Amino acid sequence: MKTSDFDPASFQVFNKQIQRATLFILVVFGVLILRLWFLQIVNGPVYRSKSEHNRIRLQDISPSRGIIFDRRGEVLVDNRPSYNLYIIPEEVQDQGRLLESLSRLIVLDPGPTGELLDKASRGLPFKPVCVKRDISRNELAIIETHRFNLPGVLIAVKQQRRYISGYLASHLLGYLGEITEQQLKTGEYPDNKSGDLVGKSGVEWKWQAVLNGKRGGAQVEVDAAGRTIQVISRKPPVSGSDISLTIDRSLQALAEKALHGKRGAIVAMDPQNGEILALASSPPYDPNLFVGGIDKTNWDRIVSSEDFVLQNRALTGQYPPGSVFKIVVALAGLQEGVIDPGEELYCNGIYALGRSKYRCWKKYGHGKVGFHKALVESCDIYFYKMGMRLGVDRIGAYAKKFGLGVKTGIDVGREKGGLIPTREWKLKKWGVPWQAGETVSLSIGQSFILVTPLQMARMISAVFSGGSVHRPQLTKKIGKTPADKVHGSSLEGKGRLEIKQEYLELVKKALVGVVNEPHGTGSKARVKNITVAGKTGTAQVVALKKGKGKQDPEEVPFKFRDHAWFLAVAPAENPKIAIAVLVEHGGHGGSAAAPIAKEIIEAYLREPG
What we know:
Blueprint: H1 8-42, H2 44-55, E1 56-61, E2 68-69, E3 75-87, H3 95-105, H4 110-123, E4 129-135, H5 137-145, E5 153-163, H6 170-173, E6 176-178, H7 181-186, E7 197-199, H8 202-206, H9 208-212, E8 216-222, E9 228-235, E10 243-245, H10 249-258, E11 264-269, E12 276-282, H11 288-291, H12 296-304, H13 313-316, H14 326-336, E13 345-347, E14 350-353, E15 356-359, E16 367-369, H15 371-376, H16 380-390, H17 392-401, H18 423-430, H19 436-442, H20 453-464, E17 468-470, E18 475-478, E19 491-496, H21 501-516, E20 533-539, E21 563-570, E22 577-583, H22 589-592, H23 594-605
Parallel strand pairs: 2-10
Antiparallel strand pairs: 1-8, 2-3, 3-4, 3-5, 6-7, 8-9, 10-18, 11-12, 11-22, 13-16, 14-15, 17-19, 20-21, 21-22
Helix pairs in contact: 10-23, 14-16, 14-17, 16-19
C-alpha cells in the first residue's frame, strides 16, 4: 500500500469497529463464564444430584403370592409371569407425544392413561406408573424395538395370579383387585402400595397378609434409553406363604357340576371335626377376569345379572329352612318333655287355630302319627302341635344352641348370621306382639326364620357327632413344612348340645328312615350298601293364595317357586360326610335336592382315600 493511499479517517472508523467487536466478544465470554460459574458452583450440587437420580433407578420387586392347594395337595391357585408396562412421569418431556407413539404401537387409550400420569406427576413423579398389565409377547417385542423413541417407558416382569380351573371354587377362593386409596390409608396393608393387587373376597381376602409376602427392591444403573447397565444393590422379596385348604378338589368340582344351570349352594363337611370338604355356590364366576383389571363389558354383565353371581350363597344366602327345621323342633320337644315318643296324634291334613287353617303338605293327611313317622314322612300337623306346646322362645333358644341365627365363624369371613325370631325380637323390630299363628309357621321352618346352607350343614353334623357343634374350618395348613401352623377345629360355645344322647339317637334313627323306609320323603338319596340319613325341606318363598287350592308348580313364576332343601349324613353309623343342599326355586327337596346329595355321597365314600 502506498503512503499516499492511507486515509486517517477510514483507519479511525476501522479501529472503532475492531474495538466494538472486541468488547462484544468479551461481554459474550463474560456471560458464558458467569453462567458456567452459576451452573457449576452455585447450582452444582443440585444438578449433580439430579444427574445421579437419572443414572440410578430404584426398582420395586414384588413378592410372589402364596399358592393355594386343596386337602390332597392339588394346586387351585398359582402364579405366572406377567409383563407390565410402566411410565416414569419425571422422565417424560412430551407426554402427549409419548402416549401417541405408544398408542400407535400397542392397544392403549391415551385419554385415561394421560389422566393417570397427570395425577402421578402431582404426587410422586419419579415413581413408575403402571399403565397396562400383562402385555402380550408381541407387544413386548414391539416396545423393546422402539425403546430409544420411548423415554420414561419401563417394562417390569411380575407374577400374575392364575386360577387353574377358572370357575372352580370361585366364591370360596375369591378374587384380586387393585388396592384402593382408602385401603392404603387404613394401615392394614403395610406391604402394599398403589397399583398392587390385593384380595377382595374369599380366601384371597381373608389371608391377604399371609399370601402377600414382603416386597423387595434394587438400585439399578441405567443408560439414557433406560436399559440396565448393572445392579448396584438388591434386597430380595419374601414370597407369601402357601395355604392348604380342607376342600377336596374333585368333590368341589362334582358339587359345582351338580348345580350347573341352577341357583343354589352345597356345603359338604366332615361332621367329626368341622372341616369343609366342598363349598359350592351357583352361578359361579371366573376370578381370572379380575386379575388384570376387569373390562367394563364383563363388569356390567356381572353386576346387572339377576343371578347375583358374586354372592356366595353358601355363606351369605339367607333362606327359610322349611321342614329341615323340624329336626330342631323335634329335639327341643324331646328335651323339654313336651314330646312323648310313644304318643300318637291324628293328622287329617288341616290344623285349625282360631279362624285360621294350616295345611299339611299331604292333602288328606297322614292319619295316626307318632314321633318317628312324623319325621320320616315330614308331617306338618304333628309339628304344628309340638311347636305350639314349645312356644316361640323355647324353639328359638334351641335353634341358637345349634348355631342358627349367628355367624359360624368360618375362617373365610364375610358370612351372614341369618335370623331366629323371638317375641322380644318382633316387638323391638316391628312394635307388635308375636302371634300364635306365627309359632305354627315357625314350627315347620317358615315365618321370619332365615338360615344359611353352611349353618344347616353344621346343624346336621351336630346331631350325628354326638351333639358337638364345631366351628367350620376351611384352612387346613399355612406354610410348607411340617412345623408350619395347622388349623384344627374348635367347638362353638360350650361345645356340646345340652340334649340327652337317647333323644339324639331317636332323631338319628328317624332320619335314617327318611331315606330308607318305604314312605320316607328322602328316598332319592339312597345309596347301595351305604346307610344315608337325611331330611327333606320345601321352603315357601311366598304364601299360597287362599281359596286357590294346590297350584301347578309350572304355573308359578320362577321367582315365587319354593326352595328345595336336603340335609344328609353318611354312613349314618360312622359319619364321614355331612351335606346341605339348597336349590333356589327348585321345588320339593326330595326330588330336586336329594339326588344331588346322593351323587356327592356316592362319589366321596367310594373314592379311595
